[in-house]
Specification:
The complex is a heterodimer of chains A (about 600) and B (about 550).
Chain A: H1 5-12, H2 41-58, H3 64-68, H4 72-93, H5 112-119, H6 123-130, E1 134-140, H7 147-155, E2 160-164, H8 171-176, E3 179-183, E4 206-207, H9 208-214, H10 218-228, H11 234-237, H12 243-253, H13 264-280, E5 283-290, H14 308-323, E6 332-340, H15 345-361, E7 366-372, H16 385-398, E8 407-408, H17 417-427, E9 432-435, H18 443-451, E10 455-458, H19 460-465, H20 477-483, E11 487-489, H21 494-497, H22 505-514, H23 519-532, H24 541-550, H25 557-580
Parallel strand pairs in A: 1-5, 5-6, 6-7, 8-9, 9-10, 10-11
Antiparallel strand pairs in A: 2-3, 2-4
Helix pairs in contact in A: 4-25, 6-22, 7-13, 9-10, 13-14, 15-16, 22-23, 23-25
Chain B: H1 3-12, H2 20-37, H3 43-47, H4 51-71, H5 90-97, E1 101-107, H6 108-111, H7 114-123, E2 127-131, H8 138-143, E3 146-150, E4 175-176, H9 177-183, H10 188-200, H11 212-216, H12 218-230, H13 233-249, E5 252-260, H14 278-293, E6 302-310, H15 315-331, E7 336-342, H16 351-368, E8 377-378, H17 392-398, E9 403-406, H18 414-422, E10 426-429, H19 445-449, E11 455-457, H20 473-482, H21 487-500, H22 509-518, H23 525-548, H24 550-553
Parallel strand pairs in B: 1-5, 5-6, 6-7, 8-9, 9-10, 10-11
Antiparallel strand pairs in B: 2-3, 2-4
Helix pairs in contact in B: 4-23, 5-20, 9-10, 13-14, 15-16, 21-23
The chains are: A alpha/beta (about 600), B alpha/beta (about 550).
């Protein structure tokens, strides 16, 4: 028996239709009155209440004020981008897998490492890339520049050598070896030609170009090998079942080879390329988290004993870059002095003294203080309360301003010590919170954060790759924005975590792609926030809060930068309208924007 | 700390924990934390604990911390962890013993133990399998639809015997199940069982966080298959009996099944199926009553059905489905207790597009004088808002839903969180079977509990996800183990909630609300079941003290 075509179709749609000939579908025959209608008075009433309710909730969003202030051009651009995004979700991202080739499945919001190769083929990407993004507030120096760029610099610098903790002749040895770069100014012993030789003596230095040329597979293979020591592989990124601790063990190792960032010519090139790439990505200002290191001057082997050297190099590079044509739009960079939270408390106190000393010498460069490393395993802020109280008191005595920008709540826990760090961070008057991943579970703290105007530096890709959220769709960002928590988007460690660019474009892309409620306007608000909460200059707390609230209306540096960003934003929106307006003439302007 | 370090610190003027200044800091910190805890869902429950219960809570937390630490470094909190903690975990033992109240969110077809129903399918005389196309290729039998049906028709020897696994099969032809099994090209009957199991269950591999709507549709994919089996009386009866047994064994006393009525019901040995679902409801009721008369069933209070319409039905079929619901309710008033719409929220129509139909349904109920409240699924999708189905939450609220299924995106809506509390709407949360989170710790449940939203944990689709047992122990254990903040009071509160929000009787909105508000102080069925639960809970705490007292004795 053949099914009637319509039944067949329903059957395939998963709508269950009885397909046996003997069965007659029960035709209901009752005297029910009337039929469902969209024009029914009650239905219309429901639709009205619904839209009022949604509007009321939208009013609580942190980006509400920004949306209200949008110009007509920006509103139009927002509507166009909304249409483009939806079109790409339907026509570009929705690709079903097939039996036998399930990996073909593609969908909007899938895990970042899987989505990354496709992103750059989208129109939304070319828009996001061009967007003015304000300030990069949360990134760790050693992981800010793509590995390839760093490697190029190493290859092109005279006297660079590589050494390995063991020979790397087998896959297993390659996996277990650690590698180190250094600069030497003497001629090398020629006995060891390659780190790949089975008779390679551990830790022997080999000129980098020679090591690359003698590597099986040549330079490309050598690059791949070095990259495998400095980046999390996509295969690892998606293994959420192995948990947070496992990925952190790997993640921390990948910082090892970046010790090369002490040789002056490399450091200088690094800064130059970094600033250039940030500007290319629409970023005007950066606050770099790092523990200041040593500097080995050009041609030397030993580090300069004077810790000022590191700051001088940074200072000079910022100034030099600002003189270049590209650097015209660059507002500058500051450093958030970081220490390792797993260090012993005495050492932490020692380093605090160092921070205080350097703040006195380089007040314009030192922005604030923070503790880094896996939050779940290091000291909690509570454990360090005596040191932190002491530090604060010292800043008062010395009359310097070093506010806290604490990492807090970068955890899956609810009620564990990392989660509770959020309470301490607030009580210690942190000006921003790094990650704040668990904040959305805390009603009282959410209110405190809003009242005290504390911004959360959200790093969506980092949280995903370090296994807090399986993908962008599971990220708590929407919950924070909906409650009115100020947030900005950062990239944390883009060279290690897989963004593989210095800028913010991938993190911005994920944010607009993942959530319907964001849109171009929401993304604009996040960029705008990043400037409002940037620490451009030393300020007492009351001035800091005042400037955040005044925003572009004030006469501070901050207000000036915000006005400059507004101009960039307007011309960006105009560009969208000019470029895509003709293709999306009907994109209607949403009343909720 | 080393003496040397201490001296150094004192010399540098680094404050010590004992210093008044630091002590003051700590006091401020404590009060901030306790300020937040006042809002928690179980704040009152916690305050009202008897001394014995308070001690039991302490013991349970201690056990949780010990076991959690032991598991650190292992693959902890994977949801589909196959190594059951049942044998080793003391926490598990405790959760198992807890009086769990009601199971409020579970699909009937997905609650069925898959191995069991496969056995029934093979053992029931007259059962046939049919498909709308031959299942000849590997891809066909991996994904093409098929179903079962009962028929009294016997094929004579001379007639050609249809074979569903070959290209010559005529779509719609009935093949006896035993014959189809023995002809199965990939390993005969054993292979057939294996294949059926795969088509009905979902066990996704670790490391591949499955796409949201891919896993979400699985219960829907298996629905036609399982429903076609459950539409034959003997199989329905044996499955219900088995489910009731499993529930009662896990200290669950009452259940509300979300049931999709998609296949006409056939009585045992009947030539033609029944019109409507009156007969189905009678059978359902008989089985509950019979079970309650058995020894195992003595503690069991009953079972009811939430009539569930698939979201994807075309309008005309949708309306017919609603009418069938009202008819069945008129004939057997004790069975249907609510109405819901199911199907992946990301696909099909959002509630807002269905509002005309829903108001029509409400009018229908009023005209016929029946009470069938809405108990909607809402906010079970990922992502945030826009005009899409995330806004189902708003509709569900405005349509007066009494509970909300899943509500996984509710925490993204501050206004709705307040309204849910104000309107006394319970969230039915399913941690393990819902693919919202890979690790239970990234589930947004704590964000709701900390804001005082009432929640009960549910199992949703235990059979389809290969759990093969109708218990709430895994759900509650997962929560207790995964969330440091929860503790015994946290899960006990959710169990108490499940009774408070059960639809034992048909009630008007005001009766319903006062039943929830009054709790134990009321005088209806609900109040007496709550009182009974509190007595059991005290007994449970006593048992904890007897069993695990050594855990805290070393204080």
């Amino acid at each position: 028996m053949l099914l009637p075509p319509i039944m067949n179709l329903l059957f395939l749609l998963g709508v269950v239709v009885w397909c046996v000939s003997s069965v007659v579908s029960a035709e209901v025959d009752l005297d029910f009155v009337g039929e469902p209608s969209i024009n029914d008075r009650v239905v219309q009433h429901h639709l009205r209440s619904r839209s009022e309710m949604i509007t009321q909730e939208m009013g609580q969003r942190q980006d509400h004020a920004f949306r209200q202030s949008l110009s007509p051009v920006a509103r139009r651009a927002d509507a166009i981008v909304k249409a483009i995004r939806q079109e790409e979700i339907d026509n570009f991202w929705r690709v079903p897998g097939v039996v036998g080739d399930e990996e073909r499945e593609r969908f909007a919001g899938e895990m970042f490492p899987k989505a990354r190769p496709h992103i750059e083929n989208t129109t939304l990407w070319s828009i996001v890339k061009r967007m003015p993004k304000g300030a990069l507030l949360h990134a760790h120096l050693q992981a800010m520049l793509p590995v390839d760029v760093l490697l190029d610099t190493v290859f092109h610098t005279e006297g660079m050598v590589i050494s390995a903790s063991q020979d790397v002749s087998t896959p297993l040895k390659r996996e277990n070896a650690t590698i180190t770069f250094a600069h030497v100014n003497h001629t090398m012993n020629e006995i060891h030609r390659s780190i790949h030789d089975t008779n390679y003596v551990p830790n022997t230095q080999i000129p980098i170009n020679q090591a690359a040329d003698t590597f099986p597979g040549g330079r490309p293979a050598f690059r791949e090998f070095v990259k495998s020591k400095m980046t999390i592989a996509p295969e690892d990124s998606v293994r959420h079942d192995l948990g947070v601790d496992e990925i952190w063990r790997k993640f921390q190792q990948y910082f090892g080879p970046t010790d090369v960032l002490n040789y002056e010519p490399i450091v200088r090139t690094f800064y130059r390329k970094l600033f250039g790439r940030l500007v290319d990505d629409g970023i005007n200002w950066v606050e770099i988290r790092t523990a200041p290191g040593e500097i080995v001057h050009n041609g030397d082997e030993a580090a300069d004993p004077n810790p000022d050297a590191w700051w001088n190099v940074l200072h000079e590079e910022i100034d030099t870059f600002k003189q270049t044509p590209k650097g015209k739009g660059f507002w500058g960079a500051r450093v958030i002095f970081t220490d390792t939270r797993s260090s012993n408390r005495t050492l932490i106190a020692e380093n605090m003294k160092l921070a205080l000393g350097q703040k006195q010498k380089f007040p314009y460069l030192v922005s604030g203080y923070d503790l880094v490393g896996q939050e779940d395993l290091g000291h909690s802020l509570l454990e360090l309360a005596p040191e932190l109280v002491w530090f604060k008191r010292q800043t008062e005595i010395l009359n310097v301003t070093i506010p806290f920008f604490f990492h807090a709540g970068e955890t899956l826990g609810d009620g564990n010590s990392t989660d509770l760090n959020l309470f301490d961070a607030l009580l210690f008057q942190t000006r921003r919170i790094g990650h704040g991943f668990s904040l959305y579970k805390h009603p009282k703290l959410t209110i405190e954060v809003i009242q005290k105007s504390v911004l959360v530096e959200v790093c969506p890709i980092s949280n995903e790759v370090l296994r807090l959220a399986t993908d962008i769709l599971h990220h708590p960002l929407p919950a924070m924005v909906a409650h009115g928590v100020p947030t900005a988007i950062s990239n944390d460690d883009p060279s290690i975590l897989g963004q593989n660019i210095a800028g913010l474009s991938y993190d911005f892309y994920q944010t607009i792609q993942g959530f319907d409620n964001t849109g171009l306007a929401g993304l604009g608000a996040l960029a705008h926030n990043s400037i409002r909460w940037a620490n451009f200059q030393d300020q007492p707390h009351s001035d800091w809060i005042r400037d955040i609230h005044l925003a572009e209306r004030g006469d501070s540096i901050k207000a000036r930068h915000l006005r400059s960003w507004n101009t960039q934003w307007e011309s960006f929106c105009q560009w969208i309208v000019d470029t895509y307006g003709a293709k999306y003439p009907a994109a209607e302007v949403n009343s909720h924007v | 700390m080393e003496q040397k370090d201490l001296e150094w610190e004192l010399e540098e003027g680094i404050p010590q924990l004992e210093d008044p200044f630091i002590q003051q800091y700590l006091k401020g910190r404590d009060s901030l934390i306790s300020e937040e805890q006042k809002q928690r869902h179980d704040a009152n429950f916690r305050k009202a604990l008897t001394p014995m219960a308070a001690r039991a809570c302490k013991i349970v937390s201690r056990i949780r911390d010990q076991e959690y630490r032991q598991m650190v470094g292992k693959h902890r909190d994977r949801l589909d962890d196959s190594s059951s903690p049942a044998e080793t975990s003391r926490l598990w033992k405790a959760v198992q013993k807890l009086p769990k109240g009601s199971l409020l969110h579970v699909y009937l077809h997905a609650a069925v133990d898959i191995d069991f129903i496969i056995n029934e399918a093979l053992a029931t005389p007259g059962l046939h399998i049919c498909a709308s196309q031959p299942l000849a290729q590997k891809e066909d039998y991996k994904s093409s639809p098929f179903q079962f049906s009962y028929s009294t028709r016997r094929t004579s020897e001379s007639e050609a015997q249809p074979n569903i696994w070959t290209g010559t099969y005529n779509p719609g032809d009935l093949v006896p199940v035993s014959r189809a099994a023995s002809l199965f090209p990939d390993g005969g009957e054993t292979g057939f069982r294996c294949w059926l199991q795969q088509r009905c269950t979902n066990t996704h591999e670790p490391g591949h966080s499955a796409r949201n709507d891919e896993t979400a549709t699985l219960p829907e994919v298996s629905l036609p298959i399982l429903n076609s089996l459950l539409s034959y009386e003997p199989i329905l009866r044996s499955c219900l009996r088995r489910i009731y047994k499993q529930l009662a064994a896990d200290n669950i006393r009452y259940v509300e099944f979300r049931t999709v009525f998609s296949a006409p019901f056939t009585l045992e040995g009947a030539n033609t199926p029944e019109d409507g679902y009156t007969a189905w409801c009678r059978v359902f009721q008989e089985e509950v009553e019979q079970f309650k008369r058995t020894d195992e069933g003595q503690i069991f209070h009953g079972a009811r059905v939430i009539w569930t319409t698939p979201r994807s039905l075309p309008t005309k079929r949708f309306v017919q489905n609603m009418q069938e619901c009202v008819l069945a309710k008129l004939d057997v008033p004790g069975v249907i207790c609510g109405y819901d719409i199911a199907g992946p929220a990301d696909q099909g129509k959002p509630l807002v597009e269905l509002t005309p139909l829903l108001f029509y349904f409400r009018k229908l109920c009023a005209e016929e004088g029946v009470v069938i409240p809405f108990l909607f699924h809402a906010g079970a999708n990922l992502g945030d808002g826009g005009d899409g189905v995330d806004h189902d939450l708003f509709d569900a609220m405005l349509l007066g839903t009494r509970r909300m299924g899943q509500g996984s995106s509710l925490h993204q809506h501050p206004l709705l969180v307040d309204l849910v509390k104000e309107k006394k709407i319970l969230i039915e949360s399913c941690l393990r079977s819902h693919p919202i989170a890979d690790s239970v710790q990234s589930h947004p449940l704590p964000a709701l509990l900390s804001r005082g939203v009432p929640v009960a944990l549910c199992s949703d689709t235990p059979g389809v996800y290969g759990q093969n047992a109708n218990t709430l122990t895994p759900e509650y254990w997962t929560a207790l183990h995964g969330f440091e903040c929860l503790g015994l009071t946290g899960i006990a509160m959710m169990m108490e909630n499940s009774i408070r929000w059960s639809c034992y009787d048909d009630q008007s909105p005001s009766e319903w609300l006062s039943g929830i508000r009054e709790g134990v102080t009321g005088n209806g069925v609900k109040a007496s079941r709550l009182r009974e639960w509190y007595e059991e809970f005290e007994k449970f705490c006593e048992w904890i003290l007897d069993e695990f007292d050594e855990v805290v004795s070393d204080d």
